[in-house]
Amino acid sequence: MGSDDEFFFLNQGDTDPKRMKAEREKARELRKTPWWREKLRAGVCHYCQKKFQASELTMDHLVPLARGGRSVKNNLVPACKACNSEKRLSTPVDLLLKQIESEKKDES
Questions:
Q1: Which residues neighbour 108 within 8 Å (Cβ) at sequence distance 6 or greater?
Q2: How far apart are CA 87 and CA 21, in angstroms?
Q3: pTM more than 0.85
């Protein structure tokens, strides 16, 4: 997923420290909800679909906060630490485009 040569244009408004702090606080509050506990009980990483113990899963923003994402239920998924680290600032669209690109290379 992530590579050292990736570069993302970040909007200054999206990376505003006050906005980031507020969004992280919302995420911390959502971690305490039955909704999130149920996600963890399922024990499945959103990206690799492997099973993990709840303690091995992290909360990931599909659209990263630094790229305008918000801490709302439809933007939060459980991810194993490896997938979350590899994803970095990528969005689902970025990941899909990389997958398509990789498949085209494999066909050549």
A1: none
A2: 21
A3: no
